User: What shape does this take?
Amino acid sequence: MRRPSTALVESGGTRVLIDAGLADLAERFPSGNLAAILLTHYHPDHVQGLFHLRWGTGPRIDVGAPPDPEGCADLYKNNGLLTFHRLQEFSPVRFGNVTATPVPLVHSKMTFGYCLEAGATRIAYLCDTIGLPPGSVEFLKQWRPDCVVLDCCHPPLERQPRNHNDVRTALESGDAIGARRVILTHVSHELDLWLMDHAGTLPRHVAVGRDGMVIDDRNTEPSR
Assistant: This one.
């Protein structure tokens, strides 16, 4: 079983959550524990944890997201503790020690990836996309991330995938931006099964994400 794609960025005393798919966010993160939440998009599997978190007590929580006028259900109308900020593509925002630059992705709903900087470390988080828009490719090539966390939902498909990368389109995207280290995320059970039968077929610089994986900012290598 894999949990919804969610990532926690920690630098010094700053903690920024990317996406809110986990339903137990209020239990995981006590009041005042998060500097901000960044949403890639408003599909339910990426925001469902906000529906409970919003009715907590304590300081308000900044939520940065694409300028999607619809959002998800009644989150805009009944936001509780959440303060939503509509971010703009390629315009960096800073939360404590973490700087995040939104980059457009290709999905069925308006979606951002985030280029994350903390000190000298640069990690690109590109979840829920099929390929990359040309402008994002050019930005990422110049930005030169140390590590790319990249959507790869499907094993190699004979047809062109929709909304999410398969192995082929994920590797093509990584190569297009010159990624030196790639971690595949938003992995489906079908991809897990394919990997069992095709162990060792991914390039050496590509790893498969797992629940609880940690990317150490000292070397950007994933660890347990």
